[in-house]
Design brief:
mainly alpha; MOB3C kinase; 4 helices; zinc; two-stranded antiparallel ribbon; Butyryl-CoA Dehydrogenase, subunit A, domain 3; 3% strand
Length: 138
């Protein structure tokens, strides 16, 4: 378990919503609705009077946190040696491309790919132009 929380790993701590903020209140509503039953359509429905952008942002951040936790628990088993290619089974191979270092789709090991992906998502989530944290700025 100590390996999961090692800062050198790609596991990242959960993103948190500041208590007392509108996003924190929406997060609490989202958590309550997810525990309320199995009707997924009703569970993810926008609460009355809330902004659709804020509601979606809360769920995106929560999804990122959950995926990050899942990846963190299995990352020690997927190494450069054991997972040399980021793939989705035998039929699919994922390649990384961005606007800076990797101009063309590039083969990466699964750990490298996941590190790049989680960094990219975290950068987007922390971008105030995409996910503003102040009320009424979505």
């Amino acid at each position: 378990l100590k390996q999961v929380f090692n800062k050198d790993k790609t596991f990242r701590p959960r993103k948190k919503f500041e208590p007392g903020t509108q996003r924190f209140e929406l997060y609490k509503k989202a958590q309550a609705s997810l525990k309320s039953g199995l009707d997924l359509k009703a569970v993810v429905q926008l609460p009355p009077g809330e902004s659709i952008n804020d509601w979606i942002a809360v769920h995106v951040v929560d999804f990122f946190n959950r995926i990050n936790l899942i990846y963190g628990t299995m990352s020690e088993y997927c190494t450069e040696k054991s997972c040399p290619i980021m793939s989705g089974g035998l039929k699919y191979e994922y390649r990384w491309q961005d606007d800076s270092k990797y101009k063309k789709p590039t083969k990466l090991s699964a750990p490298q790919y996941m590190c790049m992906l989680m960094d990219w998502i975290e950068m987007l989530i922390n971008n105030e132009d995409i996910f503003p944290t102040r009320i009424g700025e979505c």
